[in-house]
């Protein structure tokens, strides 16, 4: 599918000064959107202790909120990917970001589980286009060889968001209350949605993109002069590559959802971290995750350029090797009781999760034509979150029943290794 064509599509004359490396400025916007997306998504884990105290909620209730969000998010991936390919990422980003920000703000007015579950459904609908949208934009703005690195950067936004969320949202909650915290981050999202709509244009329409950079982008795209390959949506489910990517991604999402929903409570209840300190301590593994996503993306470029590995194989090295190492680390977590050592193990584990998630998005664009990037990414994300949605509620039920996180970490370790097997055996060549 690699293109050798540098045929230029018709572009408007530039009215403004060209911006050097414009594609990386676009990548910065995607990173910022991902950061805010995960501030909103992880806000429930910060508010959880206060909501449990004020409203009498249980660990199972908090897990159910996480599961309802994830199931909604999963099912909405399928229409989201189709709509992005159909109407374009600019419109979808604006609508989706506005919707998820409003859903976050509404959490401030909830008083019952019915309220909170409704708002989490709306959040799932609004956030569902975010990752397929980012994947689509990266496919438009980056040549194939650079997409692993690009995915590592834009996907790290979710990890930076998760890193910033504990200290920032804890500070906002302690200062203004948990209800005001939801209002503040919801308002920030509305502002970013308006700014994105005003700023973003596709490469063909950008008046700040230089001709040299545009030619560089086109050289690594599918050949625009050829008739696009058309693959019916349901046919994707007949390919082993689709199932390998869905099952592998499921393993990373299962683990990610456990951390996203329960890391603050795990630190407080198992390692004795105070509520005031939880924000700063919980940020450490997520910082490692952000760096892990970026580092792994750079590794794929080095493997492709220096060691001449194919684009797919360079990403599979990260996916398969990372999942096996992740499984070992997760089985160690319950038996480490020293805070510093536990943070090290948790940080390494989340760094690998982040690396695998980013390269899953990157390899998806190696499997299908560029014109199908969003819908195929949406199918992968659906598979990941449909199964991964069970992780928060299963973990909550187990912790309420046993008072321990050990069974959840051991099961997650096995799931990680099985995910690596799926990546290795089923994701072997492009579909078309």
Describe this protein's structure.
With 432 residues, the protein is mostly helical. It is built from 15 helices and no strands. Helix 6 packs antiparallel against helix 10 (275-305). The N and C termini lie close together (7 Å).
List keywords for this structure.
432 residues; mainly alpha; 0% strand; globular; disordered N terminus
SS content category:
mainly alpha
Average pLDDT, all residues: 88
Query: Segments where pLDDT lies below 50 for 5+ residues?
Result: 1-8
Number of helical segments with 4 or more residues: 15
The whole-angstrom Rg is 21 Å
Reading the helices and strands in chain order gives: HHHHHHHHHHHHHHH
Percent range of helical residues = over 70%
Distance between the termini: 7 Å
Beta-strand content estimate: under 5%
Characterize the main sheet: none
How would you briefly describe this protein structure?
The protein has 432 residues and is an all-alpha fold.
Helix and strand topology:
Elements: H1 22-55, H2 59-87, H3 89-106, H4 113-127, H5 130-141, H6 147-176, H7 178-199, H8 211-219, H9 240-270, H10 275-305, H11 311-332, H12 339-367, H13 373-388, H14 390-402, H15 406-426
Helix pairs in contact: 1-2, 1-3, 1-5, 1-6, 1-7, 1-9, 2-3, 2-4, 2-13, 2-14, 3-4, 3-5, 3-7, 5-6, 5-13, 6-7, 6-10, 6-12, 9-10, 9-12, 9-13, 9-14, 9-15, 10-11, 10-12, 11-12, 11-15
């Amino acid at each position: 599918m690699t293109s050798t064509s540098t045929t230029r599509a018709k572009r408007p004359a530039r009215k403004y000064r060209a911006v050097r490396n414009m594609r990386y400025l676009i990548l910065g916007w995607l990173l910022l959107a991902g950061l805010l997306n995960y501030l909103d998504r992880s806000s429930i884990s910060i508010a959880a202790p206060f909501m449990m105290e004020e409203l009498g909620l249980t660990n199972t209730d908090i897990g159910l909120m996480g599961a309802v969000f994830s199931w909604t998010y999963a099912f909405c991936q399928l229409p989201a990917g189709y709509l992005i390919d159909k109407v374009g990422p600019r419109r979808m980003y604006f609508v989706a970001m506005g919707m998820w920000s409003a859903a976050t703000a509404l959490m401030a007015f909830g008083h019952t589980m019915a309220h909170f579950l409704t708002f989490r459904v709306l959040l799932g609908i609004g956030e569902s286009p975010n990752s397929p949208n980012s994947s689509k934009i990266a496919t438009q703005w980056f040549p194939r060889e650079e997409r692993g690195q690009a995915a590592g950067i834009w996907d790290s936004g979710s990890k930076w968001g998760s890193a910033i969320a504990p200290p920032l949202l804890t500070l906002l909650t302690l200062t203004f209350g948990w209800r005001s915290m939801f209002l503040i981050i919801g308002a920030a999202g509305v502002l970013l949605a308006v700014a994105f709509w005003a700023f973003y244009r596709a490469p063909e329409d950008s008046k700040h993109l230089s001709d040299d950079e545009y030619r560089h982008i086109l050289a690594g795209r599918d050949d625009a002069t050829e008739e696009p390959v058309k693959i019916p949506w349901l046919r994707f489910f007949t390919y082993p590559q689709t199932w390998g990517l869905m099952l592998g991604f499921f393993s990373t999402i299962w683990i990610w959802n456990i951390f996203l929903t329960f890391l603050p409570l795990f630190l407080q209840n198992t390692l004795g971290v105070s509520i005031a300190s939880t924000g700063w301590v919980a940020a450490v593994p997520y910082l490692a995750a952000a760096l892990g996503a970026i580092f792994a993306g750079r590794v794929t470029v080095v493997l492709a350029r220096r060691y001449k590995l194919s684009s797919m194989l360079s990403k599979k090295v990260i996916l398969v090797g990372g999942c096996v190492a992740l499984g070992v680390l997760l089985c160690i977590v319950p038996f480490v009781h020293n805070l510093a050592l536990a943070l090290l193990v948790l940080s390494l584990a989340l760094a690998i999760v982040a690396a695998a998630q980013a390269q899953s998005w990157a390899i998806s664009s190696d499997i299908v034509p560029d014109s199908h990037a969003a819908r195929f990414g949406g199918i992968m994300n659906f598979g990941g979150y449909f199964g991964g949605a069970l992780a928060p509620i299963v973990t909550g039920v187990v912790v309420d029943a046993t008072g321990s996180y050990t069974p959840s970490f051991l099961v997650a370790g096995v799931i990680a290794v099985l995910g690596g097997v799926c990546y290795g055996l089923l994701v072997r060549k492009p579909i078309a």
